[in-house]
């Protein structure tokens, strides 16, 4: 059985181009599809967190995000988009988020903002193909080309703005007897905002979502 021993936390950050804000999300399981260059058919790897694999060309398997980034960067896999990170799902979520009252939220992945930022912005080894599609390891990126990713960014920013407004209003009510904010469907970052009674983390998330690879950051309007 093949084994990988990763001990240096700073090395993981550097190799994966991950900032501190996203580091906690690195252990999230994502689906990868090994490429034909993954020649050790059926290999399993023993990580500190447990066994992953088997790795066989074109057979999907789940691995931690940090490992998925490494394998994709070294041309040994492509990363599948999470089921919630597509325009159709996000449009439905946005409509539902608007429909719900100000103290209720749609269900989200606990690291949805961090994962979106990493997958959209922190994969500099991706390059555009001749027709404008994004390419990695010889395959089209599951998130689609620039136009599809731009729509995903806009939808995520719209969802974030609505949730940010709800959280801001909830924080205002925390010191009153009528506070009734349902936190059961908040992400880890959003919960941290409630606990600290500060929206600075969500402000940072807005900046991260607005980043375009190879360009500057243009923060979306915060709305307060």
TrEMBL record:
Q: Does the keyword Nucleus apply?
A: yes
Q: Where is the DNA replication complex GINS protein PSF2 N-terminal domain?
A: 22-79
Lineage, highest ranks first: Eukaryota, Sar, Alveolata, Perkinsozoa, Perkinsea
Q: Where is the GINS subunit domain?
A: 84-206
Species source reads: Perkinsus chesapeaki (Clam parasite)
Record localization: Nucleus
Protein name listed in UniProt: DNA replication complex GINS protein PSF2
Q: Which keywords, in A-to-Z order, does the entry hold? A: DNA replication, Nucleus
GO biological process terms on file: DNA replication; double-strand break repair via break-induced replication
